[in-house]
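Question (not urgent): is this output format expected?
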Amino acid sequence: YSHWLQWIFGALPFEYVARVFDVLLVEGYKVLYRVALALLKFFHKVKIGESLEPGNAKAEIQDFVQGMNKVVSSEKLLEKAFSIRLFSRKEIRLLQMANEKALQQKGITVKQTRHNVQLAVHAENFQSGIVTAKEMREIWSWIPERFALSQPMQIFTTAEHGCSLTRFYTLCEGHEPTILLIKTITGEICGAYLSTDWSERKRYGNKLSFFGTGECFVFRLKPEVDRYEWVVIRHPELVSPNMENMSESPPVPSAISQEASLDRLSPFLAARHFSLPTKTASMFMAGNNESIIIGGGDGNALYIDADLNHGRTSHCNTFNNQPLCSETFQISILEVWGFKESLNS
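Got this back:
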């Protein structure tokens, strides 16, 4: 099944590919997993009872997908796809890390060098009260690759929209991901890459509750450059199998011994079986009417008050960071940047 992406983009009739791509742009990459599983379900339903030679499975699936218009419509295919429950993005990320660790222990290198994607920002067109075009290119080199070709789009700035947390939320909601930039009155610059829409905070009323994913990170640009990723990314050994939930999990394939499953993360375990060292290891972002917080556990990487005027920074367990600037600071300018597709720029 390693050629499953080819089923979608190489074998499906064009009208099906167009519908899948349409949904991909709105829903994100998880739709590809859904569609691939739906194709397998339909293949199994149609071919059940037929004897298939193992060596011909790849060609059989390819031929079946090419004739999908004889089986179901594109709408029915998507209906089936979205009826399949998948892991959350956070769980998929944990499973990916588990696979990488398992391969590394076998001496297989899984990390690939990232292509250096240069942000096409022209100094004369880029306007920020905090960073230069060169500094924004530095930030862009850190973000997930799927957004690297997008262009920065300023969503909020205290210089224009005032120091209002309500206004901040109003203008930032509907944008995901975002980059938060802060310049203090002493000239220090720091910020955060935030993976999730700020509207997510509404699920908890005005209660301060954390949300977001492990793609979040915090950084500082002045007086020195440094970036702090989720602590689990830098130290995957902190994630261990949660033995309490083993009884609910599918059986571990016989190729993996019971002993092996205890001392490494099995790529076959569902993410709910991964036990973080503490809850504070996944406190990414939070907000209510009184403040916004980035990072948690024994402190906050960033705490900003309701007036967007004063803040604090300290070490936190989520990012294992050093203070991003002076531990208590006054904000000179705060900006939020979103992502605009380069084709529309």
